[in-house]
Amino acid sequence: MPFGYNGIRLVVDLAEMEIRSEEPDEVWYRKHLGGMGSVAYHLLNTVEAHADPLGPDNVLVMSTGVITGAPFSGSGRNAVGGKSPLTGGFGEADAGGFWNAELKHAGFDEIIFKGKASEPVWLWINEGEAELRDGSSLWGLEVGECQDRMRETTGEPQAKTALIGPAGERMVRIACVINDLTHVAGRSGMGAVMGSKNLKGVAVRGRNPPELADPDRVKELAQSLVKRVETEARGLHEYGTGAAMDAYAKTGNLPTRNFRDGDWPHAKEIDAIAIKEKHRVGMGTCYSCAVRCKKEVELVEPYRVERRYGGPEYETLGAFGSDCGVSDLPAICKANELCQRYGIDTIGAGTTIAFAMECYEEGIIDDETTGGVKLNFGDAEAMLKTVELIGKREGIGDILAEGSRRASGVFGEESRRYLVEVKGQEAPMHEPRLKRGLGLGYAVSPTGADHCHNLHDTVMNARSYDSLRPLGIYTRRCPYTA
Predict the structure, then answer these.
(1) Are 342 and 167 in contact (CB under 8 A)?
(2) What residues does CATH 1.10.569.10 cover in the chain?
(3) Which of 5, 66, 168, 410 is least surrounded by Cβ atoms within 10 Å, i.e. has the fewest?
(4) Interior CA angle at 464 toward 463 and 466, to 5°?
């Protein structure tokens, strides 16, 4: 299969500890393209409708796309999917980083994991060869420690990793899969699916990218994208995501105190500009990307925060900041690091904690339920303690580890009015009461509330509509309105 793909997928049967390769034909690639399309294909064709998302009959799909691993900005992405333990339906998240390109360069386009290993394992892929290895010594390790151990074991200090932390091992339903310590496939609970299969992670080393159809044109495109950073992505390059939180607050687009409030005076205290001025020590990037929008923060006091775990993106700043009513920027940086260490989706964790805070302040739950944690809006220490409890599945964290909808089932019927989720997945940091098209997207998306799967009303303009013409959308006016 020339140009963009290797034409080979790995199928890993964890129950039988067997690995085989398959070679889809060109028609399959043209029809499904990899990524989310491949996830949908495998779920529809291999998973029964009533299969337990955390049972052996579910699959875990890690799939690259047609441009993954090509040498230009925006090509460092991969999808992770399976039946979601949060929603019970289609689950998919995508991540950036370098792991995805490394997989393509190692000779494979995607990996399908089936069944469940009897003991913890991990997959090592090196230059077209793959083997399952004993993961008992890795089980229980935080994400960074696990990557260190894998690299030491393989003797490959440049091996790229896709891992779960202790949260995924404990099947926390808001657990995620983390590429290269900082790039997160966060939504849908795929870390819990990975943990349910006793699969700790995948380490990859590859040095042979697929053949390009037109190398000169690709080089031209890469140079063009580098030049456009200055004109079209300068803010992202300089600050990363989250530089406009003050404007979000003024327009009613900054979720505050469990989406209860429409304004928050502390937005500028926790935005990306404040991070750059106070705590940022560098900027990271994804494979071959000139934008370099990934914050790297480092703190010694009042909390120790390691640089290698990156820094909070906008969704994290909103989820642990305004949505929890917390204006303590070091605490938000620490919450992000804890989620990276444990392998927890920051959106799911922040929104679930904000839900619990409102239930606590409304008297629906009390100190007995929380184990003495004072879950008041604005309490940074309570927020941090709860993140850790979720990762460990201890105390109130064991309830919240199930996600907000299931936690509501424990808290009681009265708590349901304070839920902010769609189909069981917590809402990201965008206000559907302003972005009504986004709200509609949440309602009809198979994954529920996911800002990456929907349009954002505030960025739609004439140019945006013109770009939709190939999809058959020819008018900027809804044909169903008078």
Answers:
(1) yes
(2) 233-453
(3) 410
(4) 65
Q: Does 478 score more than 50 pLDDT?
A: no
Q: Indicate the pTM of the whole model.
A: 0.94
> Quick one: 351 exposed, middle or buried, by C-beta within 10 A (0-12, 13-18, 19+)?
buried
The pLDDT > 70 percentage for the chain reads 96
Burial class of residue 73 in the structure, from the number of CB atoms within 10 Å of its CB (0-12 exposed, 13-18 middle, 19+ buried): buried
Q: What are 275's two structure tokens?
A: 């991070």
Token pair in block for residue 460: 């739609």
Place of tokens 């590429």: 179
Tokens describing residue 263: 């304004």
Q: What amino acid is encoded at 48 in this protein?
A: E
Please, are residues 86 and 116 in contact by the beta-carbon 8 Å criterion? no
pLDDT at position 2: 67
- With cut-offs at 50, 70 and 90, classify the pLDDT of residue 474: low
CATH 1.20.1260.110 matches 233-453: no
Q: Are 102 and 204 in contact (CB under 8 A)?
A: yes
d(CA 317, CA 334): 11
Among 103-112, 183-192, 385-394, 444-453, name the one with the lowest average pLDDT: 444-453
Q: Looking at the chain, which residues constitute the CATH 3.60.9.10 domain(s)?
A: 9-205
pLDDT digits (tens, 9 = 90+) for 198-222: 999 999 999 999 899 999 999 999 9
Report phi then psi at 344, rounded to 5. -125, 140
The candidate with the shortest Cα–Cα distance to 173, out of 153, 194, 154, 152, is 194
Kindly report the backbone phi and psi dihedral angles of residue 295, in degrees, each rounded to the nearest multiple of 5, phi listed first: -65, 145
Whether residue 437 contacts residue 177, with contact meaning beta carbons closer than 8 Å, is answered with no
For residue 262, the SS3 value is coil
The whole-number average pLDDT for the span 268-273 is: 98
CATH dotted code for 9-205? 3.60.9.10
**β 110-114/9-13 pair status:** parallel
Residues in the chain: 482
